[in-house]
Please model this.
Amino acid sequence: MLVNRDGIKHFPCEKSYMREMGKISEEVVTVIQNCPLFVGLSREELFGLLEHCSCRIRSFRKDQLVAVAGDEISFMHIIVEGLVKGEMVDFAGKVIKIEDIEPPRPLAPAFLFGQQNRYPVNITAGVDVKILSIPKDEFLKLMQTSELVLRNFVNIVSSRGQFLSNKIRFLSFSTIKGKLAQYLLDLAKKAGSGPIQLSHSQAQLSELFGVARPSVGRAISELNQEGIIRTEGKQVQILDLPGLSALLK
Model:
């Protein structure tokens, strides 16, 4: 048992929950072929990249800590089965869930390299979980071997940076309606005249705005009732542009 700087206890992955990979199974390849890191690769190409890679499958039981905030990231981890939760613990000891991460997403890819390559949050198994772990040096070799993997990795990191930049901008608005107004006006500017198409689900908007999901739905309903917008599914018609712009003040 280990205890981190915040006094949180966690158990390192025991040998019974870890096995070295001689050959990557077809089941694992079927899952990770849809991972953003490997989009565009054929099964044969993916097999060829991984067959000589010293990666391994790690298994974690439900509620077991996969990683602790502040731990150095030495592997590219990809969820193969199950679900993990990104969580933060505040000064009062309250656990705040940041997001759920499902297959075949990688864990914290933007933090794999750099001077502060440490987990920003605790990672906990929401159910029994299997994770494909590729050592950082091995993953670097994969990117040197495949330009497509390198391009995908750069796109993931860049997209995450852009997302966080937008999130910081939305946090500057004190009300949810103000955040939503800025989001809709940005889309309207890109789309020109006519209805606009929402590019995010309500769950994604709640993450972007840093608020609870029901709050986003409630703000959209209120804007409809006030006659400022009209929504049909993901399509939005701005009815009162001055009224929407006034929410930014």
